[in-house]
Amino acid sequence: MTFLLDDDELLLQQTVRSYFDKRVAPLVAEHERNRTFPWELLPELYEFGFVRGVASEADGGDAISYMALAVLMEEAGRCWGSLRTTVNIASMVARLLSVAGTPEQKERFLTPLLRGERYGWFALTEPDAGSDAGALRTSARPDGDGYRITGNKLYITNGMGGDFGIVLADVPGHGVSAFLVDKEESPYVCADIPHLPVRSTTSCELAFDEVFVPAGNLVGELGGGFALAMNAVNMGRLNMSMGAVGIMQACLEASIAYTTSRHQFGKPIAGFQLVQQMVVEIATLTETSRLLGYKAARTLDAGLPGRYECSMAKYHCGESAGRAATLALQVHGGAGLMEESPVERYFRDAREATIPEGTTQIQILQMGKHLLGVSAMR
Ligand SMILES: Cc1cc2nc3c(=O)[nH]c(=O)nc-3n(C[C@H](O)[C@H](O)[C@H](O)COP(=O)(O)OP(=O)(O)OC[C@H]3O[C@@H](n4cnc5c(N)ncnc54)[C@H](O)[C@@H]3O)c2cc1C
Asked: CA-CA distances (angstroms) from residue 249 to 39, 219, 221, 306?
């Protein structure tokens, strides 16, 4: 597949893969077991273009291409799903602030975020507004020189680890707007919800009860929050797709290593046709997914909206990752189901890829609308 990347992209891929293999991979098992995350690694990661790459140079970012972002996210996914998810959320926040933040907001939130000194979460989903993100109930009521936010946000990645975040809330008469919420300035309640995939992230419920947020924390225009969020989510779809490709690549490598060394009936199990079929299916799912992810990245790099391409990549990569990880478990036999095997983690993490940033069904409906001109959502 190397001819699909130019020399710079190839070098980036090799450099970041080598870093992950040497510096990060040895830490993964213990952090996953303890459900902790090595936050101190983030500034090192940002040197490769993670998070910093999605902000403009004027804002202190590296303004990398979407293709470079795709390469980074595949390598992160190949190493550790929790890390890929963590840098994805920070990237969405960084992108949103770089595009729409005021100079003061950038100085206070974006600059330390890009240095790895602060971490920000992104809160759109609510108990009664998941796929139907437009139905959110959290409100921001004007009050003096600010707003009072009331409502609950659900499944917010790294709500525990972040010291600020972006909340999407309805401002009566104006519509959904984006607000920066700082934990110290505007205390809210945060509770972790134990979950199946990406165990070194927290998945939190955030509760806001008349929480005061200064007017200066409004990001972008009043009523412009949903468009900003969807812009960040589109990039998140590319990131999630390529993270899923990374998981599939890891499944493939593990399956080749295992099937060529595990013997049954007097020979390596790689010599059985039914085993070969499973390994080849993992390889085919990985390659087709990677091609769709690359296509989405190249589309965005061409300056096109890329909504359809990102949805198709997310749909195919997410579903394929689940299938590839199931097959990887199968070729590992009982060993694959043991927590000491990395494929057990790949299987759990692959299940994430069909849900956040729009479920598989939502991607299908969005592509259906694009192709057919009719919305099947309502
Ligand atoms: C690990 C994880 C991390 C997350 N991180 C964040 C985060 O950081 N910030 C954030 O804001 N959110 C986050 N989320 C929330 C995520 O975006 C939502 O879970 C997702 O959008 C789906 O919403 P829901 O869970 O309410 O499912 P629902 O919307 O209730 O969907 C349930 C099922 O119904 C299907 N469905 C719904 N509507 C339709 C329809 N019209 N037609 C066909 N099928 C339909 C869905 O596809 C799904 O299969 C995270 C979720 C997870 C699991």
From this structure: 25, 38, 41, 24
